[in-house]
Amino acid sequence: AQSVSQHNHHVILSEAASLELGCNYSYGGTVNLFWYVQYPGQHLQLLLKYFSGDPLVKGIKGFEAEFIKSKFSFNLRKPSVQWSDTAEYFCAVSDGDMRFGAGTRLTVKP
Amino acid sequence: NAGVTQTPKFQVLKTGQSMTLQCAQDMNHNSMYWYRQDPGMGLRLIYYSASEGTTDKGEVPNGYNVSRLNKREFSLRLESAAPSQTSVYFCASSMQVQGNNEKLFFGSGTQLSVL
C-alpha cells in the first residue's frame, strides 16, 4: 500500500508571503492525489484533486498543486497567503483506499 | 440531505469495555472508511469498505472490527477498549467513478476517551 510523507510539520508565514507545502508518496502505480484542509474545530474539506491530465491543478481559495510523477510529489502552493489560511493541511493518496500524510500546520501572522 | 451521519459525538469508556461507532451515508456512495486522528499523526486509516459486502484493513486495524451492514452503513467496533485508542474517529464515504476515487465526505467525528 502507498504511504504519504509531508515533511513540513509546522510552517509560520506572514500575510502575503508565498506558500509551498511538500507532499511525497511511495506508490509507483496510478494514484489519485488530493489536498484537504482542516480549519480549527472543523472536519476536512477538499482543496483540490488530481486524477490525470494537466499536472498543474487549481483548487479553491487560490490554491494550486503540481503533480511531478518522476519525483512522486504533489506539492501545494499559494502565491500570497492570508490570515484566514491558518489551518492544517493534509495530502492524501488513493489507489483504492485513501491514505493521508501526517499534516502540516500553517500559521499565518497578520 | 444529511451526508455522513456518525454517532455518538462523544464517548468515555473504561479500559476493557466495548462499544460500536455507527456511521451512515445517504449519498449512495460505494466506498466507506474509518479513520482515527491523533495530534501530529494526521488521519490514519483503520478499515475501509470499497463496496457493500467487502472490508479491508488499513494502516492501524488492530483492536478494531468493522461491519458493512449494507450500502449505507459501516460500523466500527472496539471489543476491548485500551487507552491507546483514545482518539477522534472519523467516518467518511466516497464514490468511485471510472476507477477514480472521488473526494471524501466526512462525518462530524467521535471524540473517544478510554480511561
Q: What order do the helices and strands come in, and which of them pair?
A:
The complex is a heterodimer of chains A (110) and B (115).
Chain A (H helix, E strand, L loop, with lengths): L3 E2 L4 E5 L4 E3 L2 E2 L6 E7 L6 E6 L5 E3 L5 E5 L4 E6 L8 E8 L3 E3 L3 E6 L1
Parallel strand pairs in A: 2-12
Antiparallel strand pairs in A: 1-4, 3-9, 5-6, 5-10, 7-8, 8-9, 10-11, 10-12
Chain B lengths: L3 E4 L2 E4 L5 E7 L5 E8 L3 E8 L6 E2 L6 E5 L5 E5 L8 E8 L1 E2 L2 E2 L3 E2 L3 E5 L1
Parallel strand pairs in B: 2-13
Antiparallel strand pairs in B: 1-3, 3-8, 4-5, 4-9, 5-6, 7-8, 9-12, 9-13, 10-11
Can you tell me about this structure?
The complex is a heterodimer of chains A (110) and B (115). Chain A is built from no helices and twelve strands. The radius of gyration of chain A is 13 Å and the shape is globular. Chain A is an all-beta fold and 110 residues long. With 115 residues, chain B is an all-beta fold. The radius of gyration of chain B is 13 Å and the shape is globular. Chain B is 0% helix and 54% strand. Chain B contains no helices and 13 strands. In chain B, β5 and β6 (56-57) form a beta hairpin. Chain B has strands spanning 4-7, 10-13, 19-25, 31-38, 42-49, 56-57, 64-68, 74-78, 87-94, 96-97, 100-101, 105-106, 110-114. Chain A binds chain B through residues 1, 6, 9, 32, 34, 36, 43-44, 46, 49, 51, 90, 92, 94, 96-103, and chain B through 33, 35, 40-45, 48, 50, 56, 58-59, 90, 92, 94, 100-104, 106-109.
